[in-house]
Amino acid sequence: TLTDAGAATQGIYINPWVTTVEVDNNTFYDSPLSASSTAFGLLAAGGNWDLNIHDNDCMVDNNTAINCFHSLSAESGDLNSQARFYNNRVVCWTDSSLGESCQGTSGVGIWLDGWGSVIQGNNLGFMQPDIRLGPYSMHTKVTSNYFESSPTSSVPAVQFGNPGDAPSTYVDGLTFADNNFDTQGNVAASFLGPTTANDLLTNTLIDGI
């Protein structure tokens, strides 16, 4: 269990080009404590082919915009940051308020940027967003996950594209199937949307949210 790691840059850091890594049965609780946009409970730094990330918990309840999991593409644009992410729980749960207080204080749940990744069977709630898929995430499959939206947030559960993308950045070939999306009665909530106005989605299948 990693708890309140205030001095940590990352909770777990996987060096570039380290491959076939398995990360399982860990708890990231308010960790790392830093609200930096570059700090994550787990950061895979690029070229990490075949990451197997499963049965982990990332829980945030301290009114801090803590990020959970990030798998980067390599700086050269290499596509080999493929990850299998399943049976994890990622949730902002502030003051036992079912996510109401998480608006503006929760970070990114899962941020992937590698070809052919799989996100399956996870419980994802009240992060902003729950999932972000970067432009190197072509042909990623998001299936059989349970999503909950904050009753007050307008941030989509799933964003495509990265902050700072150039105009007309494409995210291509995604698949969404058999996911459950609970809006908590929030009429402004959406399941899928761009990270910035520059991001475009192409050749994507949505078969049962």
Give the gist of this structure.
By secondary structure, the protein is mostly beta strands. It contains no helices and 23 strands.
The largest β sheet comes out as: 7 strands, parallel
Look at the helices and sheets and give the structural class: mainly beta
Number of helices: 0
Report the portion of residues in β strands: 35-45%
> What helical percentage do the residues reach?
under 10%
Overall mean pLDDT score? 84
Rg calc:
15 Å
Number of strands: 23
Order of helices and strands: EEEEEEEEEEEEEEEEEEEEEEE
State the strand order across the main sheet.
1-4-7-10-13-16-20
Note the gap between the termini: 32 Å
Shape: globular
Show unreliable segments.
none
Lay out the secondary structure:
Elements: E1 2-3, E2 12-14, E3 22-24, E4 27-29, E5 40-44, E6 51-54, E7 57-60, E8 67-71, E9 83-86, E10 89-92, E11 110-112, E12 118-120, E13 123-125, E14 131-133, E15 141-143, E16 146-148, E17 158-160, E18 169-172, E19 175-177, E20 180-182, E21 192-194, E22 199-202, E23 205-207
Parallel strand pairs: 1-4, 2-5, 3-6, 4-7, 5-8, 6-9, 7-10, 8-11, 9-12, 10-13, 11-14, 12-15, 13-16, 14-17, 15-19, 16-20, 17-21, 18-22, 19-23
What does this structure look like?
The strands form four sheets. A seven-stranded parallel beta sheet has the order 1-4-7-10-13-16-20, with no helix packed on it. A seven-stranded parallel beta sheet has the order 2-5-8-11-14-17-21, with no helix packed on it. The protein is an all-beta fold and 209 residues long. The termini are far apart. It is 0% helix and 37% strand. The chain contains no helices and 23 strands.
